[in-house]
Amino acid sequence: MASRSADSRTGNGSPPAVDAVSLAIIEQLQEDGRRPYAAIGKAVGLSEAAVRQRVQKLLDQGVMQIVAVTDPLTVGFRRQAMVGINVEGDLDPVAEALSAMAECEYVVMTAGSFDLMVEIVCEDDDHLLEMINKRIRPLPGVRSTESFVYLKLKKQTYMWGTR
Question: Mapping DSSP to helix (H, G, I), strand (E, B) and coil, where does residue 50 land?
Answer without folding.
Answer: helix
